[in-house]
Specification:
- This is Gylcosyl hydrolase 115 C-terminal domain-containing protein.
- InterPro entries: GH115, GH115_C, GH115_sf, Hex-like_dom2, TAT_signal.
- It holds the Pfam family Glyco_hydro_115.
- Keywords: Hydrolase, Signal.
- 30% of the residues lie in helices and 22% in strands.
- It has 996 residues and is an alpha/beta fold.
- The strands form seven sheets. The protein has an eight-stranded parallel sheet with strand order 13-12-11-18-17-16-15-14.
- A hairpin with a 6-residue loop joins strand 31 and strand 32.
- Helix 6 runs parallel beside helix 7.
- The relative contact order is 0.07.
C-alpha cells in the first residue's frame, strides 16, 4: 500500500455535532457519547438539521459499493463492515463493485485519487476533504445527497490513502456498536432491528505518530493457544495473524513485529503471512535482533548448514568472521519480501536477543567501525533488491547497541532512530536537537510486557496508564513521532493498556495530565455501557494504583512489613479485598452477555492480582509465626497461603476452560516455563502438633514481645494492634486489661486455640492533655505480658490550629500532590498527573523539554512548598519518593530545602544497567526511587519544606521526614494529619486470619 507523506500538524477537533447526533438517534448503546477512542476527529455542519443515515431499516440493509480498482485492503475491510452490520442487525449488506442504476441509499467506500466516484464528488465540492486530502491515513465520513445518477443518498467513506479508508470503515463499525475487542475480549454486540449513523461529516485527521504497532513477544502462551485452537499443525500461523491484523486495524494501528521465539513458527515460514499482511495493509517489520526481516532463532542454523566453509565448518553469526555469508543471508530475505510493504531493521545483534558477537573487534571503537560496515552493507542490499520502496528503515539502539551508538555509530539521515525504554516503561534516552532534525525522524520501542531482568511481567496489564501517558508525552515533546512500537507479550491481558497506547499514538493531545483517567471511563463505557463504565473505571484505577506499589508479578517473600504501620501488608490486602468485593458485586449484577468480557477485562486481573498478593501475605505471616514460636497458628497461616494458591490456579483454570466456552484454552498462564524470577507457590513452614498451650504476644512494631512501645497521637488518632497467640495446640484462656480508663481494647479476653489480633485505641476526649505512659497487661494463668503505650494528647484546639502537615509518632508523611503552594519559574512548572504513583496523583516537572536549573535554585527553579508543624528539633532525613525516569546522556536531579536553608541537590538513577540487585533494579521493582537529604529544624513550630526541579520530567510521589520514630517498611507511612488534605487519617485495620 502506498502512502503520501504527512502534511502540517492538524488542528484541534470538536465533537459537539457528533455528540448531538449520537444523542438524537440513540445508536450504539455500548459506546459512550464520544467518538471512537483513537480518533482525532472533527465534525462540521448542522448535523442535527439533517436526517441520520439508516444502514438497516425494516429488515433491509443498504448496499456497500467499492470501486473495482480499490486497494485489496479497502475491499477486505468493506467485507468486515458487511459482517459488522450483520452482527448488529442480523442482516448482511450486499457488496457492489459497480454503481447501481437505482438506489434510495448506498454506502460508498473509496480512496482519494483512486476512486472515480469519490473524486467526482470532490471535484463538484460535494465532499469536504480539505482536512483529509494529501494527509497520512486521514478520512472523512459524510452523507451526500444525490451523489450519482439514480442514487438518492449515500454515506461516503473516503480516505486520503488506502489505510485512511480502512480506518474510516472501522470508525463506522464502532459507531454502530462494534468494539475492536469484540473477538479478542468477547465484548458482545447488542442486537438491534435498525441501525443508523449521524449525517456527519466525521473527519479523522492524520495521526500524531506515522507508524503505530505492536511486538508479539515472549509468546509462549499465545503459541500454546494458537496451536490448540487455531492451527493444530502450526505454532502461530496465518489464521492467528488474520485475527491479529484485524484487531490492529480496528485499533487504528498499522505496524507489526511478529512473534520470534523458538517455541513459535517464524513469520516468513508461511508465505501466506506476508501476503496476508499486505492484503490487510499491515506494515511488517522485525525486532532489534532480526536484521532485514531475518529470524535468527529459526533461520540462521539451516542457512549456515547450507553454507559451510571450504573446510566444512559451520559459519558463525559474526560479521567480523563471515561477512559474505551473513550478507547473502540478509539479501535473500530482502529479495523475497521486496514486493511487500515492509519496515527494514538495520544493524545487528546476536542470535535470539543476545549481544552482538565480534570476535575480531574487541574495543568499542572497533565495534563501532564494524557496525558502520554492517549498516552500509545492508543499505546496499536494500537499494539493489528493494529500491525506493525500502522504507521505512529503522535502527534500534537496544542494550549494548545503544552504547555503540553513543560511541559514534553513523546512522544515515533518512533512517529512523527507534529509542528503547529500559524494558520497564522508562525511556533510556531521547533524541537531541540534532537527532530531532533527522529526515528519518525518531520513534520508540516501549514495553507494556517484558521477559528478563530484574523481573518479568507478562501476566497482567499492570502499568499505570498515567505512567504510559507521562513517558509517551515526553517522547512526543522530543519529536519521537515517526514510529511507536509496543511490546505486548502474548497480547491477552494488555487490552486496556494497548488501547490507550494506540489512542495516544493517534492523538497525543487527546488526554492530558488532568484527565488520563477519562480514557478508562470512555473505554470501559464503550465495552460495557455507561451504566457500568464509571464503577469499572474506579475499580481499574485502584487496581493500577495497587500494582504501582508492587506489580503482582514482582511479589516476593518479605517485601511488605507485617509488623509496622498497622500491618502494612495487611492494610494493602484489605484494600485488595475491598476492590475484589466491589468487582464481584458488579460482576454478579451484569447481564449474562457481558460476563465473559467482564471476567477477561476486569475480574480476572483484579482477582488474580489479589490472590497472588494474598498467598505471599499469608506465607509471610506463616514465617513470622514460626519465628515467634506459635503453635497451631503457624499451620493456620500455611493453610491460608496454600488455599490462596489453589484458588489462583482454579481462577486461571476457569479462564482457560469455561470463559467463552473454553475459547482461550492454554492462553492464560501466570507461570510459563520460560519466565525468570516469576513468583510461584511460596514455601511455608508447618510445626508438629504438641499437646500444650502457652500465651505469647507481639505488639505492633515488634516481631515478638513489646520492646518497642505503641505510640499514639491525638493528631492522627491512631489505632495499634497486639497479636495474641498460642504457642501450643490446646485451648487457653486469656485476659487483657489497661491501667488507664481512656485506653480502649478491641477485646478484653477469651478462649484461644490459635491467635487473635487485639486493636487498641484512645478515648481522646477522656484522655488528659500532655504526654502520658500507659500499659496494657495480657495474662493467662501465671503468664503475664506488659505492652507499654506512649500517648501524646495535644488537645483538640491544637489540632484545629494546625495549618499544614503535623509531625506525630516520629515522622511526617506527605503525598506530594498536597502542596501549600507551587511556584512556576523559567517557563517550567509542577503539574498534577492524576492516576500516577502510589496515591491518587503525583506531581511532575513540565514541560519535559525545559532546561535544567543547576544554580540559584531558590530563585530560578520551579518549586513545591509544604507547610509542616514540627514538635521535634534536630537534623532529620527527608526522603523524596521519586517515580523512576532515566536520561542516559543527562541526569535526574531535584533538590530539597527547609525554609531559607540552602537547597540540597539529590541525584537519582539515570542509567538502566540491566542488572539485578542494584539501584536501577530496585527502582523498577519498587516503582519509586527513594532519595534522601538532611534538613535541620532549629526550633519547633511551623516551617516550609521546599522541593525544587533541577531536571525536567521529574515526578514526585511522596515525601517523608523521619524525626526519630520511623520504622523500616516498604511503603511510606500513611499520610500525616493535615486540616485540609487529610483531616481524618486512615487507621482502618488490615485483613487477618480468623480468630480461633
Amino acid at each position: 500500500m502506498s502512502h503520501t507523506a504527512p502534511q502540517d500538524p492538524s488542528q484541534p477537533w470538536s465533537r459537539k455535532a457528533f455528540l448531538r447526533g449520537m444523542t438524537a438517534v440513540g445508536v450504539a448503546p455500548l459506546l459512550p457519547a464520544a467518538l471512537p477512542s483513537a480518533a482525532r476527529a472533527a465534525t462540521a455542519g448542522p448535523a442535527s438539521a439533517r436526517p441520520d443515515f439508516d444502514l438497516v431499516q425494516g429488515g433491509v440493509a443498504v448496499d456497500v459499493f467499492v470501486d473495482a480498482g480499490a486497494d485489496p485492503a479497502v475491499l477486505r475491510a468493506a467485507g468486515d463492515l458487511q459482517a459488522d452490520v450483520e452482527r448488529v442487525t442480523g442482516v448482511r449488506p450486499a457488496l457492489r463493485r459497480t454503481l447501481p442504476a437505482r438506489a434510495t441509499a448506498l454506502i460508498v467506500v473509496g480512496t482519494l485519487g483512486s476512486s472515480p466516484v469519490v473524486d467526482r464528488l470532490v471535484a463538484r465540492e460535494r465532499l469536504g476533504v480539505r482536512q483529509v486530502a494529501g494527509r497520512w491515513e486521514a478520512s472523512v465520513t459524510q452523507v451526500v445527497e444525490r451523489p450519482a445518477p439514480g442514487v438518492d443518498r449515500a454515506l461516503v467513506i473516503a480516505g486520503s490513502d488506502p489505510r485512511g479508508t480502512v480506518y474510516g470503515i472501522y470508525d463506522t463499525s464502532e459507531r454502530i456498536g462494534i468494539s475492536p475487542w469484540y473477538w479478542w475480549a468477547d465484548v458482545p454486540v447488542e442486537r438491534r432491528d435498525a441501525v443508523a449513523v449521524p449525517a456527519g461529516p466525521f473527519v479523522r485527521r492524520e495521526p500524531s505518530v506515522r507508524y503505530r504497532g505492536v511486538f508479539i513477544n515472549d509468546e509462549q502462551n499465545l503459541t500454546t493457544w494458537s496451536h490448540r485452537t487455531q492451527e493444530t499443525d502450526k505454532n502461530i500461523g496465518p489464521r492467528t495473524y488474520e485475527r491479529l491484523f484485524e484487531l490492529l486495524l480496528r485499533l487504528k494501528a498499522n505496524y507489526l513485529w511478529p512473534a520470534m521465539h523458538p517455541y513459535s513458527d517464524f513469520f516468513n515460514k508461511y508465505r501466506e503471512n506476508p501476503e496476508l499482511a499486505d492484503r490487510y495493509g499491515i506494515v511488517v517489520g522485525s525486532s532489534h535482533p532480526e536484521a532485514l526481516l531475518r529470524n535468527g532463532v529459526h533461520e540462521w542454523a539451516p542457512w549456515a548448514e547450507e553454507h559451510r566453509g571450504a573446510d566444512g565448518a559451520l559459519p558463525v553469526y559474526d560479521y567480523t568472521v563471515n561477512p559474505a555469508v551473513i550478507s547473502d543471508y540478509w539479501r535473500a530475505r530482502a529479495r523475497e519480501n521486496a514486493a511487500y510493504e515492509s519496515s527494514w531493521t538495520l544493524g545487528m545483534r546476536g542470535l535470539h536477543d543476545s549481544a552482538l558477537e565480534t570476535r575480531n573487534a574487541t574495543t568499542i571503537p572497533e565495534k563501532v567501525a564494524v557496525m558502520n560496515d554492517i549498516i552500509a552493507d545492508q543499505r546496499r542490499i536494500l537499494a539493489e533488491e528493494v529500491g525506493a520502496a525500502a522504507e521505512p528503515q529503522i535502527f534500534i539502539p537496544y542494550k549494548e547497541v545503544l552504547d555503540l551508538y553513543n560511541a559514534g555509530v553513523r546512522v544515515p539521515d533518512d533512517v529512523t532512530l527507534i529509542w528503547p525504554d529500559d524494558n520497564h516503561g522508562n525511556m533510556r534516552q531521547l533524541p537531541t536537537e540534532s537527532e530531532r532534525a533527522r529526515a528519518g525522524g525518531n520513534g520508540i520501542y516501549y514495553h507494556l510486557s517484558y521477559w528478563g531482568r530484574p523481573r518479568s511481567y507478562l501476566w497482567l496489564d499492570t502499568t499505570q496508564l498515567a505512567k504510559v501517558w507521562q513517558e509517551l508525552r515526553r517522547v512526543y515533546e522530543h519529536r519521537a513521532d515517526r514510529m511507536w512500537i509496543f511490546n505486548v507479550g502474548d497480547l491477552k491481558s494488555i487490552e486496556t493498556g494497548l488501547s490507550f497506547s494506540m489512542d495516544m499514538a493517534w492523538d497525543v493531545d487527546r488526554w492530558t495530565a488532568e484527565n488520563v483517567e477519562g480514557f478508562l471511563a470512555e473505554w470501559y463505557g464503550r465495552q460495557f455501557g455507561l451504566r457500568y463504565g464509571r464503577e469499572i473505571t474506579s475499580i481499574r484505577t485502584e487496581y493500577y494504583r495497587l500494582a504501582a506499589e508492587r506489580r503482582p508479578e514482582f511479589i516476593d517473600r518479605g517485601v511488605f512489613s507485617v509488623i509496622h504501620h498497622g500491618d502494612e501488608a495487611g492494610r494493602r490486602m484489605a484494600a485488595y479485598d475491598r476492590l475484589l468485593q466491589r468487582t464481584t458485586t458488579l460482576g454478579d449484577g451484569l447481564p449474562a452477555e457481558l460476563r465473559d468480557a467482564f471476567f477477561e477485562l476486569v475480574h480476572y486481573p483484579v482477582h488474580g492480582a489479589y490472590l497472588m498478593n494474598l498467598k505471599y501475605y499469608w506465607a509471610d505471616r506463616n514465617a513470622l509465626a514460626a519465628r515467634q514460636g506459635r503453635g497451631a497458628g503457624t499451620n493456620r497461616f500455611a493453610d491460608l497461603a496454600e488455599a490462596a494458591h489453589t484458588q489462583e490456579a482454579a481462577l486461571t483454570q476457569r479462564y482457560n476452560t469455561e470463559v467463552a466456552g473454553g475459547k482461550w484454552s492454554g492462553y492464560i498462564n501466570p507461570y510459563p516455563s520460560q519466565i525468570p524470577k516469576a513468583p510461584g507457590r511460596p514455601s511455608v513452614t508447618r510445626v508438629a502438633r504438641r499437646e500444650t498451650s502457652g500465651l505469647g504476644i507481639a505488639a505492633e512494631g515488634n516481631e515478638v514481645g513489646a520492646a518497642r512501645a505503641l505510640s499514639f497521637s491525638s493528631t492522627t488518632r491512631d489505632r495499634r494492634f497486639v497479636d495474641v497467640f498460642n504457642t501450643g495446640f490446646l485451648s487457653l484462656s486469656w485476659v487483657a486489661e489497661a491501667d488507664r480508663p481512656w485506653v480502649r481494647l478491641g477485646a478484653a479476653g477469651g478462649s484461644l486455640t490459635e491467635q487473635t489480633r487485639v486493636w487498641i485505641e484512645i478515648d481522646w476526649p477522656a484522655a488528659p492533655e500532655g504526654t502520658h505512659a500507659a500499659t496494657v497487661v495480657f495474662t493467662s494463668g501465671d503468664q503475664r505480658f506488659e505492652v507499654p503505650l506512649t500517648v501524646v494528647n495535644e488537645g483538640e484546639r491544637a489540632r484545629r490550629r494546625a495549618r499544614g502537615f503535623v509531625e506525630a509518632n516520629g515522622w511526617v508523611s506527605i503525598d506530594a500532590v498536597h502542596t501549600e503552594r507551587r511556584v512556576a519559574r523559567g517557563g517550567a512548572r509542577w503539574r498534577t498527573v492524576r492516576g500516577l504513583g502510589r496515591g491518587a496523583a503525583a506531581v511532575e516537572a513540565a514541560p519535559s523539554t525545559a532546561a535544567p536549573v543547576t544554580a540559584d535554585l531558590a530563585a530560578r527553579a520551579p518549586e513545591l512548598r509544604y507547610r509542616v508543624r514540627f514538635t521535634s528539633t534536630g537534623t532529620f532525613p527527608v526522603t523524596v519518593f521519586r517515580l523512576p525516569s532515566l536520561d542516559e546522556r543527562g541526569a535526574r536531579r531535584l533538590a530539597v530545602a527547609l525554609d531559607d536553608q540552602p537547597p540540597v541537590v539529590l541525584s537519582g538513577q539515570s542509567v538502566a544497567t540491566g542488572n539485578r540487585g542494584d539501584a536501577w533494579a530496585r527502582n523498577v521493582e519498587e516503582g519509586v526511587e527513594k532519595l534522601t537529604a538532611p534538613v535541620t529544624v532549629a526550633k519547633p513550630g511551623e516551617h516550609v519544606l521546599r522541593v525544587f526541579m533541577v531536571d525536567p520530567a521529574i515526578a514526585v510521589d511522596q515525601v517523608v521526614i523521619d524525626t526519630g520514630g520511623l520504622p523500616d517498611a516498604y511503603l511510606a507511612p500513611p499520610e500525616s494529619y493535615h486540616p485540609v488534605f487529610n483531616p481524618a487519617p486512615d487507621t482502618s485495620p488490615g485483613v487477618d486470619a480468623p480468630s480461633r
